[in-house]
Amino acid sequence: MDKTQLGYVTTTFADGVASVEFFHPAHNSLPGKLLAELAAAIREAGRDERAAVIVLRSAGERTFCAGASFDELSSIRDFETGKRFFLGFANVINAIRSCPKLVIGRVQGKTVGGGVGLAAATDYCLANKYASVKLSELAVGIGPFVVGPAVERKIGLSAMSQLAIDATEWQTAVWAKSKGLFTEVFDSTEQLDAYLAEFTGRFAGYNPEALAELKRIFWAGTEHWDQLLDERAAISGRLVLSEFTKKAIEGFKEKG
């Protein structure tokens, strides 16, 4: 079976909240198919009048997102295919950026690479204590080029540089909160979800026009990101073809 075709993205609506959930059996890694569906789901939820706020979440426990699909990365044989794959992450980040509604992240476990980028792109991110983070791209011969702007915007250049260079080291959820990636960290998923329900429940009483203006102000100065992330995807699309990267990815697949 082609593993890149597994998984799902679903959107549910309840009490003014659109919950966009993704899942993949390989630790919620994201192949191109799911990335495209995720970007589309966020854009659609942003237009849906049933939602005052959007929650980005993944299924399962202890893993929010394992980043890019190694199965798909290892199958890339040309630059255009490589760039198109990395544009998948760029499109999700830009969908969150341009969405007129606030996007709240729910991070219930470890997150790696592109998953850190998704968490950083959300407007407000809640996590549990198991939500360690790692930017592992350098260890496989690439680099966090596409997600870098979102991560740097949220935690600053110094902390982003630490994550990017210490590519094999996990940083704790408490570290991520101290740098501004997470707003709150809870001892359990149950506590996380209870707070999330109470927090998102407030949005039904807020002026949607005020929320849209607030979102626009939050993202001021990022209007060039369509072009910027396209350029960054080209860098990753080129590097993924190198022999170093191909060998590193195969090594990670054998371990996993």
Short structural description:
The protein is globular, with a radius of gyration of 17 Å. The protein has helices spanning about 30-45, 70-75, 80-100, 115-120, 150-165, 175-180, 190-200, 210-220, 225-240, 245-255; strands at about 10-15, 15-25, 55-60, 60-65, 105, 110, 125-130, 135, 185.
Which terms summarize this structure?
256 residues, alpha/beta, 3-stranded parallel sheet, 10 helices, 17% strand
How many separate domains?
A: 1
**N-to-C order of helices and strands:** EEHEEHHEEHEEHHEHHHH
Q: Give helix % range.
A: 40-55%
Order of strands, main sheet, comes to 1-2-3-5-7-9
**How is the biggest beta sheet arranged?**
6 strands, mixed
Question: Strand fraction band?
Answer: 15-25%
Rg estimate, integer Å: 17 Å
Shape: globular
Could you state the CATH homologous superfamily? 2-enoyl-CoA Hydratase, Chain A, domain 1
Mean pLDDT: 96
Number of strands: 9
Report the CATH C-level class. Alpha Beta
CATH topology: 2-enoyl-CoA Hydratase, Chain A, domain 1
Number of helices, counting only DSSP H or I runs of 4 residues or more: 10
- Given the helix and strand composition, which structural class is it? alpha/beta
Low-confidence stretches: none
Distance between the termini: 18 Å
Just name the CATH architecture.
Answer: Alpha-Beta Complex
